[in-house]
Amino acid sequence: MAGGKNWISRWPVFRQLMGENGRGEAARSARTDALRPRTEKADSVAKSICPYCAVGCGQLVYVKDGRVSQIEGDPDSPISRGRLCPKGSASKQLVTHPGRQTQVLYRRPHGTEWERLDLETAMDMIADRVVRTRRETWQQEEEGKVVRRTMGIAGLGGATLDNEENYLMKKLYTAMGAIQVENQARI
């Protein structure tokens, strides 16, 4: 039983309960001492802004061997003071997740399989469809009033777009005559 008492006295919880304040050496263990910050071996760190919404929380992006190794809140940010919401905390996955799509995938109408397209082909297909839809659904007048609009094109922005991207998208949709423009970043 002497070994049992020794084990209990080495247990961090026991030391915290019996110590004066439960912090410092009482809370330490060999495992605690072996832990290292994920940012410790980074080659560089860049200040950035979280891309998810219009709040603009500051982020520190840690880079190791030319790849993002960790993203954390920037304590110097007057907006977020080092804190990130769950979406911002998971933003590293935007560039590092193995399931992230890096090629254009297209499924033809009534198709059952995805096929890869080069970016230029996909962009041409989108442009052709936008021009055709605008031409086919353009309304110059409605009930005798000049409206100059299309109801065939709508836009839905996402929370991964920043303020500048959303601003440019709104300008583009407005220039095309679309009036149904919304954003889901409020959720």
Features:
187 residues, alpha+beta, Phosphorylase Kinase, domain 1
Which helices and strands, and how do they pair?
Blueprint (H helix, E strand, L loop, with lengths): L1 H9 L1 H7 L11 H5 L9 E6 L8 E7 L2 E7 L12 H4 L3 H4 L7 E3 L8 E3 L1 H19 E5 L2 E13 L5 H14 L1 E6 L4
Parallel strand pairs: 7-8
Antiparallel strand pairs: 1-2, 2-3, 4-5, 6-7
The percentage of residues in β strands lies in 25-35%
- The rounded Rg comes to 27 Å
Main sheet: which strands, in order across? 1-2-3
Number of domains: 3
Number of strands: 8
**How many separate helices?**
7
SSE arrangement, N to C:
HHHEEEHHEEHEEHE
Mean pLDDT: 86
Major sheet characteristics: 3 strands, antiparallel
Low-confidence stretches: none
Overall 3D geometry?
Answer: elongated
Helical content (DSSP H or I, runs of 4+): 25-40%
Give me the secondary-structure category: alpha+beta
Distance between the termini: 58 Å
